Amino acid sequence: MHPVAREHNALVYHCAPMAYTPENSRLDPGSKATLMFLAALVALGPLSVDMYLPAMPAMQQAFNTDIVHMHFTLSAYLWGFAVFHLACGPLADRFGRKPVLLGGTGLFVLASAGCALANSVEELTTYRFMQGVGACVGPTLARTITRDIFGPKGAARALSLIAMLMALAPAVAPGLGGLMLRYVEWPAVFVFLSVYGSIVMVIIGFRIPETLAEPQSLRPGNIAANYLVLLRDPVFLPIAAASALVYAGLMAYLACSGFVFIDMLGVPVEYFGFIFLSSVFGYMGGSAVSARLAVRYATSELLLLGGVIATVAVLSMLPLHLLAPTSILALILPMSFYSAALGLVLPQAMAMAMEHFPRIAATNSSLFGFLQMGLSAVITVAVGSVLVSSPLPMIITMAVTQVLALLLMVYGRAQSKKHYPIHPLSTEPDSP
Fold first, then answer.
1. Structurally, how many domains does the chain consist of?
2. What is the spatial distance between Cα 321 and Cα 252, in angstroms, rounded to a whole number?
3. How far apart are CA 135 and CA 48, in angstroms?
4. Alpha-carbon gap, residue 159 to 143, rounded angstroms
5. Minimal CA–CA distance to 320: which of 303, 337, 308, 304?
6. What is the pLDDT of residue 294?
7. Using an 8 Å Cβ cutoff, are 139 and 159 in contact?
8. In which domain, by residue range, is 354 found?
9. pLDDT tens string for the chain (432 positions)?
10. Which of 16, 123, 281, 326: CA 20 to 30 A from 355?
C-alpha cells in the first residue's frame, strides 16, 4: 500500500488488488466468465430503460396520459437510481458487496412485477422509482468489484471490455421490446425484466464472491467526510460532472426516441429496435478501442478524445435535421458517432474519477452514479415538457449538454496534470 496523495488532511492510499482467498478464487480476473458476470450486473440499468422505450406510446394511450407524464416514469426510475447511489456505496463499503447486491436485485424483481400490474400512470411511476432503487446496485457495485479485483491499472481496460459486452443489452432490448409488443401487451416487458432480475440473483448467489477487503465505518460523520473528500478533489467533480452531462445527452435521446421515431417519423413499432443497432455497434466499437488504447495512452487523453468526437457528432445533428427534417438517417448517423464516443468517455471517466480513492471505491462509484443519474432525471423531464411535434428540443438539449461536458473535460484534465503530475495508472505496479 503506497501513499499517493494528501487531499484536505486526508491521506489517500493507492492499494494493490486484494489477495484472493478460496472463496473469491471462483472469480478469476483473467477469465471471460468474470467479465460476462459483471456485464450481466451492469446490464440491469440499460435493460430497464431500453426495453420499455418502444412501449411508451402504447402505454401513453393505455393510461390516457401525455408525453410529460410518460417521461416522468423514466425520470422516476432515474431518481430512484440516483438517490440510492448515495446509500449503496457506503453500505457496500461497510457490509460487503454481495449482501447489497442481493437485496437490491430482489427489490428490482418485485418492483418490475409491480410495474406489470400497475393500473395507472401514477402507480407505474411509483414502481419505476422502486425499480430504479433496486437496479442501481448492479452497475454501481459491478464497477466497484471491477476495481476490487483488477486494481487501478487494469480497471480502465476491464471497464471498457465490460462496456463492450454490456452493449449487447441495448442492442437486443429495444428490438425485443418492439417484437414482444406485436404479440403481447406492454406489461410483458416488465415481466421479462422481473425474470431477468431473478436470474441475476442466482448468478450473484453462486458465482459472485465477496471482494471487500477492509470494511469502512457506517457512521454518518465518516460517510459525510468521505463524500466531502471526493467533492473537494480537484479532478473528481469536473470529470464526474462531464461524464454525467454526456450520459444525460444519451438519456434525453432515449427518452424522446419512442415519440420521435414512432409518432413523429412513422417508424413501425416492430422495427423500432433496428434504429439503435448503429448506435450499439458504435458504442461497442468505441469500447473496444477504449480497451485497446487504455494500455498505451493516459486516461485523460482518451477521455478528451471521446469528448471531442461526441461534440462534433451532436453538433452535426442539428444542420442535418434542418436539411432533411423527415429523415431518420439525419438523427441516427450522428448518434452512431456519439455512441462510439460514449464507449470512450464513460469507462475512462469512471477510471479517472476512481483511481485516487481505492479505500472508498464504492462510495466513489455511488457519488459518480448519483451525479450521472440525477442530472439525467432532471434533463429528461425538462426535454419532455417541450417535446411536442419536432425532434428539435431533443437535439438542442444534447448539443448544450455536450458542449458543457467538453469544457469540463478540458478543465478536469488540466487539474489532473496540476495536482497529480505522475499518472498512477501508468507508473505504479499492481502489486507491492
1. 1
2. 17
3. 8
4. 7
5. 337
6. 79
7. no
8. 30-207+225-425
9. 334 343 333 333 333 333 334 344 455 555 667 777 877 888 888 888 888 888 888 898 899 988 888 888 988 998 998 888 788 878 888 888 889 999 999 999 999 999 999 999 999 999 999 999 999 888 878 877 877 777 666 666 777 667 666 666 766 777 788 888 888 899 999 999 999 999 999 988 887 778 777 777 777 888 788 889 888 888 899 999 999 999 999 889 988 888 889 888 888 877 887 887 788 788 888 878 887 887 788 888 889 999 999 999 999 999 999 999 999 999 999 999 999 999 889 888 888 887 777 777 767 877 888 898 889 889 988 888 888 888 999 999 999 999 999 999 999 888 888 877 754 444 333 333
10. 281
pTM: 0.74
**Are 350 and 160 contacting, i.e. CB atoms less than 8 angstroms apart?**
no
Distance from C-alpha of 102 to C-alpha of 86, rounded to nearest angstrom:
17
Quote the cell numbers at residue 389: 411535434
Q: Which three cell numbers stand for residue 304?
A: 478528451
Question: Do 244 and 372 contact (CB within 8 A), yes or no?
Answer: yes
Is 143 a domain residue?
yes
Residue with cell 434542418: 322
Q: Name 259's Cβ contacts closer than 8 Å, sequence gap at least 6.
A: 56, 57, 67, 387
Burial of 214 by CB count in 10 Å (0-12 exposed, 13-18 middle, 19+ buried)?
A: exposed
Contact 97, 362 (CB under 8 A): yes
Q: Which residues have C-beta within 8 Å of that of residue 99, sequence separation ≥ 6?
A: none
Is residue 120 domain-resident?
Answer: yes
Closest-CA residue to 204 (of 80, 114, 113, 103): 103
Separation CA 426–CA 420 (nearest Å): 12
Cα–Cα dist 289/271, whole Å: 29
Answer yes or no: is 77 within a domain: yes
Cell 436470474 sits at which residue? 199
DSSP calls for 4-49 = EEEETTEEEEEPPPPPP-TTGGGS-TTSHHHHHHHHHHHTHHHHHH
Give the CATH number for residue 249.
1.20.1250.20
Cα distance between residue 254 and residue 56, in whole Å = 11
Output the CA–CA distances (angstroms, integers) from residue 206 to 32, 212, 382, in the order listed: 17, 17, 42
